[in-house]
Amino acid sequence: MIIGETPGSFGEPFNATGLVHSCFPEEVVARFKITQSNASFTEPYLLLKSKRRSHLIKQFPGKPENTAAWMRTILAGLTLFYVLYVFKGYNIQQGVSYSGHTLLTRCVLFGLANALVFYLFEFHLLRAYPVTTAPGKLAWRLAELLAGGSITFLLFNYFWSWSEWFWPAYTRLMAEYLLVMVIPTFIVSGYTFLRTKKSRTQASSLKFVSENGKDILHISPKDFLFVKAAGNYVEVHFLSGEVPQMRLIRNSLKKIEDTYRGHQHFVRCHRSYIVNPAKIDKIYKRKGKAALLIARITIPLAAAYETHFLP
């Protein structure tokens, strides 16, 4: 950071080139309690727009594990139905079965029975006997698949008068069943991975929320520049890549300051500004008035807050 004299108007972009970016002096760092461990962030900013959630998510707000359970349940049934009816999996007979059921009816019943098994496991057994270890979770998943395959085998024999009621037929069907269930397992695992990654990103980010809670902005601390009061709104300035961006959020500067009071990336420098000290390129004075330079934008530094920035 450079402290010096330079022309320019407060609140306007500063067009001078060759500015030297440097860190705060040690005494200022101590004053703000900024440490390398706290100031190091690697996650990119994430901008979220409010969207209408699906019925299933609304049914269980704030519980992503329920969404994953519903996905696993529904996909298990739909996948089995699709493979049997569309691809004629398991060499399924296309005519009427010995029990008098058509191909469509049998495929629907196979899908419903499979979904029912997964529902019982996901929403009852797994919650009645929760496990936290990886081997325990794996054992439950294998039991879930074994139950689904067994129900499918029972239904198959019911439709064909138990003509395949022997061990080799069971093992052959189970092997094919497990291959089919790879599809919903892969989809749900991908969803869970992305949801976990997103949660971790948001946990390490700064969150700006509108008064009605519909507009949410997540920014990595390393990309946050400053906040400026703008009537009933605040201007949130941040970096997208290396390009400065601005987003209007309906909220007050005081509420944001109260939310992040004591945070190392939020320091008030003026009644209308809160800045990220790590992003200050320069501090200068003009005619006795101090100002900060952040991303080529000049920000006034009120006399009441000068001691926070000047050694």
State the secondary-structure class: alpha+beta
Helical percent range? 40-55%
Largest sheet: 5 strands, antiparallel
In CATH, the architecture of the largest domain is Beta Barrel
Low-confidence stretches: 1-62
Q: Report the average pLDDT across residues.
A: 79
Kindly report how far apart the N and C termini lie.
12 Å
The total of helices stands at 9
Output the CATH class name of the largest domain.
Answer: Mainly Beta
Q: CATH homologous superfamily of the largest domain? A: LytTr DNA-binding domain
Principal-axes geometry comes out as rod-shaped
N-to-C series of helices and strands: EHEHHHHHHEEEEEHEEEEEH
Rg for CA atoms = 30 Å
Beta strand count: 12
Per CATH, what is the topology of the largest domain?
OB fold (Dihydrolipoamide Acetyltransferase, E2P)
Number of domains: 2
Hey, roughly how much beta strand do the residues contain? 15-25%
Give the strand order, joined by hyphens, for the main sheet: 7-6-5-9-8
